[in-house]
Amino acid sequence: MPLEGAGRAELMSSTVHWIAAKISEPGVGDAFAGVFSDAVSDPALREILSARLQDPYRLALQDALGEPESRVLFFIDVVVGTLLHRMGMTGEPMSDPDVAALVDMVLPHFTDALRPT
């Protein structure tokens, strides 16, 4: 995952776009959705998914953003969950304009300027 950007908002925007592109690759969204649905009732699979699939990205984001695990997990949940939901409901990846709208909705919650004190 490229952690690029001049600031927090750019870094998070590029991350959302990167995740959307990955999920849009043929078979990737299908694989994610299938594995996640199996993990609902399989604690061992959840542990594997967490340790091998999510943690490397989560830890990189935590380091880059200086945020605690809970906030980074929330960011990942909102973005990945929304992208997978769209694919599951329509059979198509989210369109570029909708990915941009997702970025516009998510960033205010996670940027310093708009974070409640």
Give a quick rundown of the structure.
With 117 residues, this protein is mainly alpha-helical.
Give me some keywords for this one.
76% helix; mainly alpha; 117 residues
Strand composition percent: under 5%
Low-confidence stretches: 113-117
Share in helix? over 70%
Average pLDDT works out at 88
Quaternary structure of the protein = single chain
H and E order: HHHHH
* Secondary structure tally: strands: 0
Compute the number of helices.
Answer: 5
Question: Main sheet?
Answer: none
Distance between the termini: 30 Å
Radius of gyration: 14 Å
| Estimated structural class | mainly alpha
Count of spatially separate domains:
1
Shape type: globular
Description:
With about 120 residues, the protein is mostly helical. It has one domain. Helices cover about 75% and strands about 0% of the residues. The chain has helices spanning about 10-25, 30-40, 45-65, 70-90, 95-110. The longest helix has 23 residues, at about 45-65. The protein is globular and about 40 Å long. The model is unreliable at about 115 (pLDDT under 50).
What's the layout of helices and strands?
Blueprint: H1 8-24, H2 28-39, H3 43-65, H4 69-90, H5 96-110
Helix pairs in contact: 1-4, 1-5, 2-3, 3-4, 4-5
